[in-house]
Amino acid sequence: MDTLSYKTPTLNPAQVEKEWVVIDATDQVLGRLCAKVAKILRGKNKPTYSPNEECGDNVIIINAEKCVLTGKKMTDREYLSYTGYPGGQRSTTPEVLLKKSFNKHLKPGYNPLYIKVMKGMLPKNRLGRRLIENMHVYNGPSHPHEAQNPKVIDINNFK
């Protein structure tokens, strides 16, 4: 009997097939949307998932400013950060982070609110830092990634 046939095949980074996916965030609850995007970024929706490899897809989120937070979370929730200096604790709200995404000096595809939410849903190591770079968030309905031929996914039908 050949025991090699019982080994689980694992892919190396050269064998991983990455796709580009477009998701419309219009009237989507922010946390639920980001939880589904985190699955796509990690590659958990693929049969070739490996927890230590970057095997997920590249995700483009359009209409990011039209996301919804339930209740009064847009103004009452606080995100804390610390500068490292005495008295350097800062707090911001999702409303402020969403307004920052409209600043012209920010890199295109970078949205502070979505980055803050997604960092909590990805691994806290160098793999997580690489995965967050595969997410591109745009406030309007257009994006500059047409050359990659992204496919549109209805996130409501995604499990």
Would you kindly provide a brief summary of this structure?
The protein has 159 residues and is of the alpha/beta class.
Describe the structure.
- With 159 residues, the chain is α/β, with parallel strands linked by helices.
- Helices cover 24% and strands 15% of the residues.
- It is built from five helices and six strands, in the order βαβαββαααββ.
- It has helices spanning 30-42, 73-76, 94-100, 112-119, 126-131; strands spanning 20-24, 58-62, 79-82, 89-92, 135-137, 151-153.
- The chain has a four-stranded parallel sheet with strand order 5-2-1-6, covered by helices on one side. Strands 3-4 form a two-stranded antiparallel sheet.
- Strand 1, helix 1 and strand 2 form a beta-alpha-beta unit.
- The model has no long low-confidence stretch (mean pLDDT 93).
What is the topological layout?
Blueprint: E1 20-24, H1 30-42, E2 58-62, H2 73-76, E3 79-82, E4 89-92, H3 94-100, H4 112-119, H5 126-131, E5 135-137, E6 151-153
Parallel strand pairs: 1-2, 1-6, 2-5
Antiparallel strand pairs: 3-4
Helix-strand string: EHEHEEHHHEE
The N- and C-terminal alpha carbons lie at a distance of 39 Å
The stretches of 5 or more residues where confidence is low (pLDDT under 50) are none
> Sheet bearing the most strands, described?
4 strands, parallel
Looking at this protein, list some descriptive labels.
single chain; globular; 15% strand; 24% helix; alpha/beta; 6 strands; 159 residues
